[in-house]
Amino acid sequence: MTWTVKEAYYTLQGEGAQTGRAAVFLRFAGCNLWSGLERDRDKAVCRFCDTDFVGTNGVNGGKFRAAEDLAAHVKAIWEAEAGDEGPRYVVCTGGEPLLQLDAPLIAALKAEGFEIGVETNGTIAAPDGLDWICVSPKANAPLVQTSGSELKLVYPQDEAEAQPERFSKLDFSHFFLQPKDDPDQARNIQAATTYCMKNPQWRLSLQTHKLIGLP
Ligand SMILES: C[S@@+](CC[C@H](N)C(=O)[O-])C[C@H]1O[C@@H](n2cnc3c(N)ncnc32)[C@H](O)[C@@H]1O
Ligand SMILES: Nc1nc2[nH]cc(C(=O)O)c2c(=O)[nH]1
Ligand code: SF4
Ligand SMILES: [Mg+2]
């Protein structure tokens, strides 16, 4: 297995129940719901993506042929900013991280002392050994991973199958609506706010890193 990493950097988790927690974001290249090329966006399954996950040209990006090498890379990024302080936390994202995050890499990250979080679209079953699973379902994509720590739904999505009611009985500890960042963002925030106030099981997840200029 070769792991293809778009970028990796130290920041604060901006979304969901772990908002504000320091973490290394490990962004894998590639996704199963969009090529990542703008010319393909209109015909992709997932069309609202806010992320460039193509290639290896981001900060600390590259190809890694050994799990231990990638784990050492993540550890070096942590230690450059936080030294020996912990708890060490890595958030695996992308792109779709579950295309690449496997048992050897999980073991190697754990051996470096990391808690491991993942941000996934839920179309691929999560491997064992993860400490935090955030599932963000997408309309027109199969939902395979139906349990986890938090379900974070980008809102609104027009399709009937992507309404919050479809997910509210699933086996998650936290339920979030995250306003879609697009040209209608102000309206999307209002709609998500209204929904959460009418349906208190759901909480609002703002993308706080974008508010304060963090990556
Ligand atoms: C870029 S995705 C990568 C992880 C995975 N592919 C997924 O979709 O969950 C990270 C998070 O950003 C969310 N997201 C993507 N585009 C967004 C947008 N335009 N507005 C709000 N959230 C967005 C996703 O739903 C997901 O929760
Ligand atoms: N700070 C920060 N928090 C995030 N939470 C989820 C993100 C993602 O793109 O997966 C993200 C991100 O890109 N940056
Ligand atoms: S599934 Fe995630 S990474 Fe893939 S296109 Fe959608 S938001 Fe972006
Ligand atoms: Mg992001």
UniProtKB/TrEMBL annotation:
Pathway membership, UniProt: Purine metabolism; 7-cyano-7-deazaguanine biosynthesis
Keywords (A to Z) from UniProt: 4Fe-4S, Iron, Iron-sulfur, Lyase, Magnesium, Metal-binding, Queuosine biosynthesis, S-adenosyl-L-methionine
EC number(s) recorded for this UniProt protein: 4.3.99.3
Biological process per Gene Ontology, one example term: tRNA queuosine(34) biosynthetic process
Catalyses which reaction(s): 6-carboxy-5,6,7,8-tetrahydropterin + H(+) = 7-carboxy-7-carbaguanine + NH4(+)
Residue ranges annotated for the Radical SAM core domain, each copy included: 18-215
MF-aspect GO terms: 4 iron, 4 sulfur cluster binding; carbon-nitrogen lyase activity; magnesium ion binding; S-adenosyl-L-methionine binding
Residues that bind [4Fe-4S] cluster: C31, C46, C49
Positions bound to substrate: L12, Q13, G14, R27, T93, P215
Domain of life: Bacteria
Cofactor note: Binds 1 S-adenosyl-L-methionine per subunit.
Family: Belongs to the radical SAM superfamily. 7-carboxy-7-deazaguanine synthase family.
Described purpose of this protein according to its UniProt entry: Catalyzes the complex heterocyclic radical-mediated conversion of 6-carboxy-5,6,7,8-tetrahydropterin (CPH4) to 7-carboxy-7-deazaguanine (CDG), a step common to the biosynthetic pathways of all 7-deazapurine-containing compounds.
Subunit structure: Homodimer.
Descriptive protein name: 7-carboxy-7-deazaguanine synthase
Organism of this sequence: Hyphomonas chukchiensis
Lineage of the organism: Bacteria, Pseudomonadati, Pseudomonadota, Alphaproteobacteria, Hyphomonadales
